[in-house]
Write a structure and sequence with these properties.
binds zinc ion, DNA-binding, WRKY domain-containing protein, 16 strands, WRKY_dom_sf, alpha+beta, sequence-specific DNA binding, nucleus, N-terminal domain of TfIIb, 15 helices
DNA sequence: CGTTTTTGACCTGCGC
DNA sequence: GCGCAGGTCAAAAACG
């Protein structure tokens, strides 16, 4: 380096570090109960190739999505989405087979009238059908969004409750710090808006990140961990990293006239098609230095408010240090970054173990390798990747093969995407984000290390339900084991405290099983070591009198599908206290998962597309029923 | 020629 | 302070 090394380094060192999470503002009406009662119907009407027999019943609660929604009305943001939902009361429906497609997709054109003649109906049917095909598409996307939102909402809700409780206990002065100390989900970012409108941002603003590829503005955290300090200043948002597509916005007001804005959620904004997604990203990138927000997220409605907020500070492409100082009162490199949040954000990790020959798992995202290291204890090098879908995206992943079994690939994700994701990437992204959120919410401190990546690559977790607590585990890590190894194919959510029972996810060929702590016993007895379950089986059991069963005909394999299944599972976990709700989320997600068609190991395979066709390609009878925990069918 | 990979240097946190 | 180990940077090389 040509520069004075020490100088530049130290300066950089203090400067705000690269952001690893996006900032997305979520506005959630606290009292709003999305979760427990809602799930999207899976009725996809009559898809092109299909049996049109997809039905689902989840605890008898169904929401018929976009039944009255025209294409243009399709909510793009979760906010809108949710509003719609609340506007249209749930549509209860039984899982019936072979319903007339009209029923589901019938647009506002004209309500069905029994008196209509057959020909009229026929014509209408035609028109409707076309529209329906669009609807189906969007329906599926919505489902994903919803499942995400549900999970996230639950997490948020819990978070808020915790926070409020804390606040009540603590003096006012401590409020902020309390807030900042609450371990938020990876994607969460809490801001406190004071009465005067000024924002105190206890958390480092993710959007500060300005790392152009030029890298002139490198930054590193110099603040010692744990010395989180809350100061009130305007959020350091600006620059490209700033695009956010916040699906939801949570706003609370506490007694002190302070608004708490909880920002959350990965930008999971499913695209209509991957092509569209690509284009969008292109545009996204191009505009990365300006106000790409509107362009890339046209659906953002003004009333949501955050768009303008974003604009206001995104005016400068690359503000100089002085400018930033002016704007924020702090030089960029001295910006307060909530170390706590930072560490939370940074530390939450989700690692996924898959059996694959490909050098890296195709998760739908674009990655750029930025490093490789020989990890201790493992002859296989560990590769470091960073997301390149959007400049400044904080997400990273590490990929390493298992020392024992080289066919097992461990991919560890960290961070939350700061941009819309291609459909293909939604599954994995939401999985990791949900899992990370759960992790952070559930445990107050660290937990076990990423298995397979750490020096001890023992993934012996499977055999017992004991969480592995590694003292040398700086990061809370959730591990999804998607290998079919009966001994190890589990996911453990470990809490350092040990007072939590791990959730266990087992991946059995085509299904995924989640065991909540309360029902550990029954599960282990029957599934483990048993023959492979029927293909396409999804089961979730919980201590609650609720059981869901998913049965599909096709054999699913490949990490992609698994990833999606896990998404559902993870989403479920995320809202631990509200398992039922989570379940709904999970189901919706699962339903859209697909027995893989062409999931080549190459980068070209698109999980999203694959998923999209899932239901239509295979008329999977999906049933869910309330049952006793005891009863189960395999 | 732009983008990605490779790779050695460098940084940071941690334990001693 | 030193050494180690995990991560990251960035120049150079490779790639398409
Ligand atoms: Zn990304």
């Amino acid at each position: 380096m040509g520069l004075n090394n020490d100088e530049s380094r130290s300066t950089e060192a203090i400067s705000s570090q690269r952001l690893r999470s996006q900032r997305i503002e979520l506005s959630v009406a606290l009292p709003f109960e999305i979760s427990s009662e809602m799930a999207l119907t899976v009725d996809s009407g009559s898809p092109p190739q299909s049996h049109a027999s997809n039905t689902a019943t989840v605890a008898s609660h169904f929401v018929s999505l976009s039944t009255n929604t025209r294409e243009t009305d399709v909510p793009r943001t979760t906010q809108q989405f949710l509003e719609n939902e609340s506007r249209h009361p749930m549509n209860l429906r039984n899982g019936s087979n072979d319903r007339p497609t009209v029923e589901d997709g019938s647009p506002p054109l004209s309500p069905q009238r029994p008196s209509q003649s057959n020909s009229d109906l026929h014509n209408q049917l035609k028109r409707t059908r076309t529209e329906m095909e669009h609807m189906i598409d969007e329906n599926q996307q919505m489902r994903k969004v919803l499942s995400l939102m549900t999970a996230e909402y639950n997490a948020l809700y819990q978070q808020l409750v915790t926070t409020v409780a804390l606040q009540q206990q603590q003096g006012k002065t401590e409020k902020f710090s309390q807030l900042s100390q609450v371990p938020l989900a990876t994607a969460l970012n809490v801001e406190v808006v004071q009465g005067n409108g000024q924002r105190a941002s206890p958390q480092r603003s993710f959007t500060e990140h300005s790392s152009h590829s030029a890298g002139s503005e490198r930054s590193r955290s110099a603040t010692p961990t744990g010395s989180a300090q809350v100061s009130s200043r305007s959020p350091g948002r600006s620059k490209h990293g700033d695009k956010q597509t916040s699906p939801l916005r949570v706003k609370l007001e506490d007694d002190t006239n302070q608004k708490i804005i909880v920002q959350a959620l990965p930008t999971v904004m499913p695209m209509d098609t991957d092509k569209a997604a690509v284009n969008m990203f292109r545009a996204y990138k191009e505009e990365s230095s300006s106000q790409a927000i509107d362009a890339s997220n046209p659906s953002e409605s003004p009333e949501l408010g955050f768009a303008s907020e974003a604009r206001e500070s995104a005016s400068q492409d690359e503000p100089s240090v002085a400018e930033q100082l002016e704007q924020n009162g702090w030089p960029p490199n001295k910006r307060m970054k909530s170390v706590l949040q930072d560490t939370s954000v940074r530390n939450a990790r989700v690692s996924v173990r898959t059996r694959t020959d490909a050098p890296t798992m195709n998760d739908g995202c674009q990655w750029r390798k930025y490093g490789q290291k020989l990890a201790k204890g493992n002859p296989c090098p560990r590769a470091y990747y960073r997301c390149t879908v959007a400049p400044g995206c904080p997400v990273r992943k590490q990929v390493q093969r298992c020392a024992e079994d080289r066919s097992i690939l461990t991919t560890t994700y960290e961070g939350t995407h700061s941009h819309p994701l291609p459909a293909a990437a939604v599954a994995m992204a939401s999985t990791t984000s949900a899992a990370a959120g759960m992790l952070l919410l559930g445990s107050t401190s660290s937990s076990d290390r990423a298995e397979g990546l750490g020096s001890d690559n023992s993934f012996n977790l499977g055999t017992h339900s004991m969480p592995i607590i590694s003292a040398s585990a700086p990061f809370p890590t959730i591990t999804l084991d998607l290998t079919n190894n009966p001994a190890a194919n589990q996911m453990h959510l470990d809490a350092a405290n040990g007072n939590r029972q791990p959730y266990t996810f087992s991946m059995a060929q085509n299904g995924i099983q989640m065991h909540a702590p309360s029902m550990m016993a029954p599960v282990q007895s029957s599934y483990y070591g048993a023959a492979k379950p029927p293909s396409g089986t999804f089961q979730m059991y919980s201590g609650n009198p609720l059981m869901v069963q998913f049965q599909g005909g096709n054999t699913a394999r490949g990490p992609q599908l698994l990833a999606d299944s896990v998404t559902a599972a993870t989403a479920a976990i995320t809202s631990d206290p509200n398992f039922t709700a989570a379940l709904a989320a999970a189901i919706t997600s699962i339903l859209s998962s697909q027995p893989n068609n062409q999931l080549a190991a190459t980068n070209s395979s698109s999980l999203g597309e694959a998923l999209r066709g899932a239901l239509s390609s295979h008329g999977l009878p999906i049933t869910a029923a309330k049952k006793d925990t005891a009863s189960r069918s395999t």
